[in-house]
Design a protein that fits this description.
Elements lengths: L5 E2 L1 H27 L4 H11 L1 H11 L10 H19 L6 H21 L20 E4 L4 E3 L8 E5 L6 H12 L1 H6 L3 E6 L3 H10 L5 E4 L4 H6 L2 E3 L14 E2 L2 E5 L5 E5 L10 H10 L6
Parallel strand pairs: 1-7, 4-5, 5-6
Antiparallel strand pairs: 2-3, 2-6, 4-9, 7-8, 9-10
Length: 292
């Protein structure tokens, strides 16, 4: 029996407004700090409290970030310090009104919710993808519409990456990282298969981006993810352009040896925490799946 499907509907509604509100409050705080007099420190504190989420999302979208720490302690401390500064100026110094403290508190609350609720899936690890099991047989399509059977992976070690879609910056960074190590993986005889419920047109765009012979596979209707217990209903954030279907998949990495036995399974519960390619290679070598 597969795991019950996770419903990401509430989270899909949360993230876009959270970013908009955080950015707006940050800009408002900066403007207020520039124009302020005696309450300038309070508004600087509010700006610090609201800055972490816009800073993080901007970094994920614009830089080559494959993963982050689980709880983002530096950014959390920054937001707390900003809130404390605004509170000090209002409660103890009496040098500021309540407005800056409220803005800071809202910024901190949004970031805490993002770190400890939005970033986590609450997933239950799929027993079908547990280390030591044989990879379940399946049939899906490649980006040309041709059938692809999991039996084609037998005879060589394989890395299967289940990713959410081109819209997910961490998924794209993770794929880029693996592509940069493709020469090493190829020398070790490893087949890399990328599986997503996104349309074949989106996957073709991804395939055109990298000059490496990955197997780009399309899980139409998310049926394979549902069968494996790694599907998310309504997991695509609200407002994402590109015509993506609302359902998606939990980021998952499965590594098999030449006989199809799973030797590594990363079923992260935090979308910002991903395994590194070095992990795949080291585990395959230890399992005797490859010789190098």
């Amino acid at each position: 029996m597969s795991n019950p499907m996770i419903d990401g509907g509430t989270k899909s509604i949360f993230i876009t407004p959270a970013i908009i509100v955080s950015v707006s409050l940050f800009v408002l705080s900066i403007i207020a700090a520039v124009d302020a007099g005696y309450d300038r420190l309070a508004w600087i504190g509010a700006a610090l409290a609201c800055m972490p989420l816009p800073l993080l999302i901007g970094r994920l979208m614009l830089s080559r970030v494959e993963r982050t720490s689980e709880n983002l302690p530096i950014l959390l401390v920054l937001s707390v310090i900003g809130t404390c500064l605004a509170a000090w100026e209002f409660l103890f110094e009496g040098a500021a009104g309540w407005q800056a403290l409220v803005v800071a508190a809202v910024g901190l609350a949004i970031f805490v919710i993002y770190v400890f609720w939005y970033s986590r899936f609450g997933r239950i690890s799929s027993p079908q993808l547990a280390v030591g099991n044989t990879l379940p047989e399946f049939e899906i399509s490649d980006i040309s519409g041709n059938p692809f059977r999991s039996l084609e992976l037998l005879g060589a070690p394989a890395v299967l990456l289940f990713y959410r879609g081109n819209w997910c910056p961490l998924c794209m960074a993770q794929i880029r990282e693996i592509a940069e190590r493709y020469q090493d993986l190829q020398e070790l005889g490893v087949t890399v298969a990328l599986v997503s419920p996104q349309t074949d047109s989106h996957s073709r765009k991804l395939a055109e981006k990298y000059e490496v012979p990955f197997r780009y596979l399309v899980d139409s209707g998310n049926r394979l993810a549902e069968a494996l217990g790694i599907a998310v209903r309504r997991g695509v954030p609200l407002g994402i352009p590109g015509g993506y279907a609302p359902d998606t998949v939990l980021p998952t990495v499965v590594v098999t040896n030449a006989s199809g036995t799973i030797v590594f399974s990363d079923q992260t519960d935090n979308y910002r925490v991903r395994p590194e390619p070095n992990d795949f290679i080291a585990i395959l070598r230890r399992a005797g799946a490859i010789t190098a």
